[in-house]
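User: Reviewer 2 asked us to show a designed sequence for the structure in our supplementary figure. I'm pasting the structure tokens here. Could you produce the per-position amino acids so we can include them in the response letter?
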């Protein structure tokens, strides 16, 4: 993976985080689609290496994108939520996939995860565009998952799910 990390600065110079995220998800889905069809240890090793390229390139980009799309005063919350999600999935998913793999076999699990990751790449379109590169810009994705509409306090979601200070300026 360290070889991939040497390439990341060149990749970051030529593509934005959303493009790298989208193509990494599609690359991961493609490897997951063919992995169960490999019967040779050498081909499985080649798939593992091929999987390392998209995963190794996107990991640093996630933190950068997270920093760009969250308001300045909510960076800590966003990073904490990301960490909690990763830790929870590291605990729960092996149990789930072990049980499902016992019932279904390994191939369907790879294909299911490939389909999930591939379809998730479609959702990255919501992150694309220059309006989302400036925290709090009109049209930026709010922490609540909605789109900020403008006005004072843009980028901060109120309890009603609109942007602004919650004083009716949406």
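Assistant: Here is a per-position design you can include in the supplement:
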């Amino acid at each position: 993976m360290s070889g991939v990390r040497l390439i990341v600065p060149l990749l970051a110079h030529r593509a934005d985080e959303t493009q790298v995220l989208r193509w990494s998800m599609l690359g991961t889905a493609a490897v997951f689609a063919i992995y169960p069809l490999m019967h040779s240890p050498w081909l499985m090793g080649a798939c593992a290496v091929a999987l390392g390229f998209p995963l190794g390139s996107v990991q640093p980009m996630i933190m950068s994108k997270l920093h760009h799309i969250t308001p300045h005063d909510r960076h800590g919350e966003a990073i904490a939520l990301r960490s909690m999600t990763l830790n929870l999935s590291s605990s729960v998913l092996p149990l789930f996939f072990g049980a499902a793999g016992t019932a279904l076999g390994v191939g369907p699990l790879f294909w299911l995860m490939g389909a999930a990751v591939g379809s998730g790449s479609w959702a990255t379109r919501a992150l694309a565009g220059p309006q989302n590169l400036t925290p709090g810009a009109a049209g930026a994705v709010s922490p609540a998952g909605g789109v900020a509409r403008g006005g004072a306090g843009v980028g901060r979601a109120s309890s009603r799910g609109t942007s602004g200070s919650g004083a009716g300026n949406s």
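For the response letter, you might also mention the following. The chain has one domain: 2-128. Residues 75-104 form the longest helix (30 residues).
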